Amino acid sequence: MRFSSPHPALVFAVIFVFIFLLHIPLLQLPYFWDESGYYVPAARDILLSGSLIPHSTLSNGHPPLVLAWIALWWRVVGYAPLVTRSAMVVVAAFSLLGVFRLAQRVANTPVAIASTICTALYPVFFAQSSLAQVDLAAAGLIFWGLCAYIEDRPAFVAVWFSLAALAKETAILAPAALAALEAIRLMAPSLRMPTRKLEVVGVERIGFGENRRPIGKLLALVVPLAPLMAWYTYHFFQTGYVFGNPEFFRYNVAATLSFPRFLLALALRLWQTFGYLHLWLLTVGMLLAMLLPPVNDSGVERQRIAIPVQVIFLAVIAAYVVAMALIGGAVLARYVLPAVPLVIILAVSTLWRRLRLWSVAVAFIALSFVAAWFWNPPYGFSPEDNLAYRDYVHLHEDAERFLEARHPMARVLTAWPATDELTRPWLGYITRPMQVVRVEDFSLDEVLSAADFRSNFDVALIFSTKYEPAHPLLDRWEAWEKVKTRFFGFHRDLPPAAAAHILGGHVVFSEGRKGQWVAVIELERVEEASIWLGRLNAARPR
Any idea where the domains of the chain sit in the sequence? Predict the structure, then answer.
């Protein structure tokens, strides 16, 4: 059965409406974690001053393309979380259109539709679709670049990958992996892929198989280095350092270059790429389907994705898995977003080829992805990978509004990112700035240290800085906890009652949701002052 190719504008409109409707309950949420700590302040600096280098926060060296996109929306529509998140949904829709076109080029329209739906519903992609961060945008531009590369359009290859690198610097990994393939083919002619024609909706095009212009292709893949190097040159002359502020570079590069840590991070990256948040259902389904013979439609065997294309996909996947195991202080799943949709396309194509009821299997997997929006795994994970980030935002909204109403002039002991939430009303949590005293976290050592200087603050806002599963799968192992502490900066936050005891106060507000919590602690002298103020007001003549 042949499916006609819908117009890209129509596909984009359908995708946008679909994911916009799914994200409506999330579009007015205040900013979360890295949004409030870096991306939104940096975009706001572009809006207010036109400066591509942030000055209200330390520069991390990320290229400014996505932040400029957000600032443009604010300039045209107005500054509000609804505008920000709507702008990011547009980026997500464009990225999914790239997934659709890529899957359609290498497989067919049914596989493209199924792959696009699975990618849109995959929890990490879904959560990132309305967050003001840069990884999803970079991934989407990479998909467009891969599509142009497979279609043998060098000019578009250079453009898309250049834009991807200006969205996030790590996007340069994709053209680098492809350039390595082209260099291998150039140096070893015997390893060149056999010529093959790519059929797209009845139109034959010379594509991925024939290495007609190896030098031209290689140059197109090298071009994206130029705008990235130009950005870093500009960044150096403006700030005095190249790859972000020294602490950012130390945390994400210098402190990660350890072979034992690399092996552990590599295992985590493989899990995030092939198994994380129910993705293992699709991977296992693909492996089991490969044991079956291809389906025949009226005597015609369904075709696999061409081996040369599979090699291209695997090269990009491998580049991201290995590189992201080497660098990145926090082993966040969003860092491998460019790889996961490629795995999804390969797996869905395999199911289509070898299962007659493949659509039923894909529907089951899609529903499992939706379930993972709400289900938190029995091991540590980042709340930004599913709707746990919404729980964090609601918890902090409730606690900080309580704090503002009860102690608007108090000095508040807390940790990042609540320090930014309490001092920057434009992040959406409070109506006017409060005074804060910062600690790194709420571990025993940090709380004990704060207790020695309790005269510097009046109340404490404490919260879970790590997701804490009710029934942990691995955290019961002391050895595993030591490994996480040594290589990944793991710590345990004190529970509110214990922190209150050490600080010399008591809990006046607490709330928890699915492994996350927040609490407000009043120091005794604040309580006493409130009592005397109340008595004084009651004694005044009326």
Answer: 8-375, 388-539
CB 277 within 8 A of CB 369: yes
How far apart are the C-alpha atoms of 156 and 160, rounded to whole Å? 6
Q: How many helices (H) and strands (E) does the chain have?
A: 24, 9
> Could you tell me if 362 and 344 are in contact, meaning their C-beta atoms sit under 8 angstroms apart?
no
388-539 maps to which CATH number?
A: 3.40.50
Please choose, from the candidates 309, 143, 163, 182, the residue with its C-alpha nearest in 3D space to the C-alpha of residue 223.
163
How confident is residue 84, by pLDDT bands cut at 50, 70 and 90? Answer: very high
Residue 519 token pair: 């609490």
**Beta-strand relationship, 411-415 and 459-463:** parallel
Distance in angstroms (rounded) separating the CA atoms of residues 414 and 402: 15
What is the SS3 assignment for 530?
A: helix
Distance in angstroms (rounded) separating the CA atoms of residues 221 and 224: 7
List residues bridging with 333 in a β-sheet: none
Residue pair 354/294 in contact (Cβ under 8 Å)? The answer is yes
pLDDT, one tens digit per residue, over 307-357 is 999 999 999 999 999 999 998 878 899 999 999 999 999 999 999 999 999
C-alpha distances (whole Å) from 91 to each of 15, 137, 258, 281 are 11, 6, 35, 27
pTM summary value: 0.90
Please give the full DSSP string across 378-438, using - where no structure is assigned. SS---GGGSTHHHHHHHHHHHHHHHHHHH-TT-EEEEETTHHHHHH-GGGSS-SS--EEEE
Tell me the sheet residues that pair with 521.
460, 507
Residues 6+ apart with CB under 8 A from 115: 99, 100, 103, 107, 341, 344, 345, 348, 349
Which amino acid appears at position 136 of this protein?
L
* Residue 185 near residue 92, CB atoms below 8 Å: no
Instruction: Provide the 8-state DSSP code for 37.
Output: I
Q: How far apart are CA 307 and CA 194, in angstroms?
A: 10
